[in-house]
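Give me structure tokens for this 287-residue protein.
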Amino acid sequence: MSKQVLCFGEVLWDTFEDGKKIGGAPLNVAQHLTQQGIPSYIVSRVGADASGDDLLLELQKANVPLQYIQKDRHLPTCEVTVSLDASGQATYTIPQPVAWDNIQPTDELLNEAGQLAAIVFGSLASREQATRTTLLNLLSEFTIPLRVFDVNLRPPHYDLDTIETLAALANVVKMNEDEANLLIHSTHGSLKDKMVEFHKKFHSNTICVTRGQNGAIIWHDEEFYEHPGFEVQVEDTVGAGDSFLATLVAGLLLAQPIPQILEKACEIGAFVASQRGANPVYPDNLF
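Here you go.
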């Protein structure tokens, strides 16, 4: 089986005080999958503007395949303002609407969908109807073995009905503790209790909850697996969760043991948090 992965959603500029870098969670996941030897493509949309031209040029320099990145003649390329606090935690100011709010179901995309090993998607790109409809059609009409939902809530750019719809169409769901508490508000027990409740509601085969510096926990085939994480000096948290998710997806596609996947995902997530930006190049001893 081909191990090709389609990452669906936003590509954008992350703008920091000292400059800007290409970003967007699906793009970050695709770049980390590529570093890990998994062929990956990004489905997105940029504006027909100078910012979009510059973004495509940077993607080309990063060896990101461009064939599924569309151009929009009316909506602008997305530029997000990133603010870092004293501990390196990031907050994002995201404009709306932008080009990736209007991803269309092109013939090229539909022809590719039936051949995929996995699709990775998040909540942010589903905030507008056009892109949400394209994604829901892909998930509903094609048999894609691994359907990975990265909850990745960015207030105020989501509604719970959409989140629940996406969760029900996924067989792998990744979220952080705050997102777990929001989505499983009917349960007052432990995190494990909440994950079991989530499975009962959405029937996900694999549920992963990340816990920042405290590692992560995975529920897979009715078993729990935990890792305490790795201690690092945090530079910034941009892309750390995306690198974790990419490692999880790669491990599942390669049918690796869950404890091995979890440890490697925590290790790579910690490494990315120790570096500036979302896509640092791995050292030889990391992967």
